[in-house]
Amino acid sequence: MWVLAGIVVIAGGFLLRFNPLLVIIVSAFVTGFAAGLDPVRIVATFGHAFNETRYVTAIYMVLPVIGLLERRGLQARARALVAGLRGATAGRLLTGYLLFRQVTAALGLTSVAGPAQTVRPLVAPMAEAAAERQGGAADDAERVKAMAAATDTVGLFFGEDIFLAVGSILLMKGVLEGYGILLEPFQLSIWAIPTAIAAFVIHGTRLWWLDRRLSRGGAR
After folding, report:
1. Of 212 and 74, more confident
2. Phi, psi of 164 (to 5 degrees)
3. Confidence class of residue 220 from pLDDT cuts 50, 70 and 90?
4. Residue 151 has what pLDDT?
5. 132 near 82, Cβ under 8 Å?
6. What's the rounded Cα separation, in Å, for the pair 175 and 166?
7. Does residue 206 contact residue 147 with C-beta atoms inside 8 Å?
């Protein structure tokens, strides 16, 4: 149980508002010492983990590109594009994005979109432009932004479970095996399809209600 001391260090460090990076490093060393590892082994484990997950640093290349595009008017272009489309509404646009997010997540392409890559620079401004065309009230802008972020989350969360190799499927398989229930990942992913369909219908209904609200000029 001493290896759990690292959790106490993290909780205490964040509570006292110490530097997060320093807290995590100290927590890792406390956990390593509690597990009987020497300092060299702990540092080696750090290096191995970084080497195995070095792809995460790709975000440092993506974010500057998105920033430059926004500075050059990416959001304005996106709003102008929606403004020129007949029949485009915030609900319909977000429903299409929900379908896109679920399908791509089901294929394992979880990083093809996201809050930083697509929602903030593209999806949210386009939904806002559509809401303005529908005559939405001024206080509906934040609601539309929140719904755009929620759409991305719902699409990813309920779509990725259909993919065989996603961590949640493997976690469920391991937990069920612990209780003597033997299932293949394919069986779990198949049963995730009805849940994904239900999530699409439920959130799609919420988006339909959003359209109705915006069409009434924000009237409740």
Report:
1. 212
2. -60, -40
3. very low
4. 96
5. no
6. 15
7. yes
Residue 44 has pLDDT above 70, yes or no: yes
Predicted local distance difference test score (pLDDT) of residue 88: 80
Q: For residue 160, what are its two tokens?
A: 């990725």
Mean pLDDT on 98-102: 94
Residue 163 structure tokens:
């993919």
Query: Contact 110/157 with Cβ under 8 angstroms?
Result: no
Nearest-10 crossing angle of helices 124-133, 90-106: 150
Contact (CB, 8 A) for 154 and 198: no
Based on the number of CB atoms within 10 Å of its own CB, is 218 exposed (0-12), middle (13-18) or buried (19 or more)?
middle
Q: Which long-range contacts (CB under 8 A, 24 or more apart) does 152-156 make?
A: 152/97, 152/101, 152/113, 152/114, 152/115, 152/118, 152/119, 152/123, 154/98, 154/101, 154/199, 154/203, 155/97, 155/98, 155/99, 155/100, 155/101, 155/102, 155/105, 156/101, 156/102, 156/105, 156/110, 156/114
Q: Take residue 116 and report the two structure tokens written for it.
A: 């930083």
Would you place residue 100 in the very low, low, confident or very high pLDDT band (cuts 50, 70, 90)? very high
Residue 104, C-beta contacts closer than 8 angstroms, at least 6 positions apart: 110, 112, 113, 159
3-state class percentages of the chain: helix first, strand second, coil last, to nearest 5 = 80, 0, 20
Secondary structure of residue 163 in the 3-state scheme = coil
pTM: 0.64
pLDDT tens, residue by residue, 169-180: 777 888 888 888
